[in-house]
Amino acid sequence: MNFRTNKLILFITIFFSSPNYYLIRATELRSHDINNFTSKVSPAEKFTVFIFNSLPEEDSTLYVECASKDNYLGTQTLLPGQYFHFKFRVNLFRTTLFHCRYVTEGRQISHDVFNKGLGGSCETRDPEIGNKCVWLVVDDGFYLGNNFPPAPFRKVYDW
C-alpha cells in the first residue's frame, strides 16, 4: 500500500459546551501503525494526560475509568465539552503505562492512553506541565495530539 492509502487527512468539527467551534485536522492511522510513534521518553520526564469528551450531544455522558499498575484514578463522569487530566512522571525503566476504560450509550472500550510508544507523540516540553497527551473522544474514535485544538491530531483507536 502506498502512503496515501495508509494515511488520510480528516477535518472534524468538534463542539465544546461553549459556543466556540474548533476545527481539528487529524491524520488517521491504521491501528497497527500505533507502534510507529517515535519514542523519546526519558526517565522522570513529566507528562499530563487530558481526555476531552467531544461526543455529540445525543451521546451525552462519557464515563472514563483510568489506572496504571500502581495508581487507580477512579471513574470520571464527563458531559460533552468537559475534560479531566492527570499528571505523572515516567519511571526509571520507562515502563510507565496508563490505560482507560470508556463507557457511553451502548459502547465501551479500553485502551492505553500512555505508554512508551505513545509518549513520543506527546512531546511538548512545557515547563509547567511537562509533555501533553491530549485525547479527543469523538463519535468515530479516539484522537491523540500534543496540544489543544485546533492542533493536529492522529486517530489512534476506533470505538
TrEMBL record:
Annotated compartments = Secreted
Q: Which UniProt keywords apply?
A: Secreted, Self-incompatibility, Signal
GO biological process: what's one of them? rejection of self pollen
Q: State the GO CC annotations.
A: extracellular region
InterPro entries per the UniProt record, alphabetical: Self-incomp_S1
Q: Which domain of life is it from?
A: Eukaryota
The protein's predominant localisation is secreted
The answer to whether UniProt assigns keyword Secreted to this entry is yes
Q: Which family does it belong to?
A: Belongs to the plant self-incompatibility (S1) protein family.
Q: What is this protein called?
A: S-protein homolog
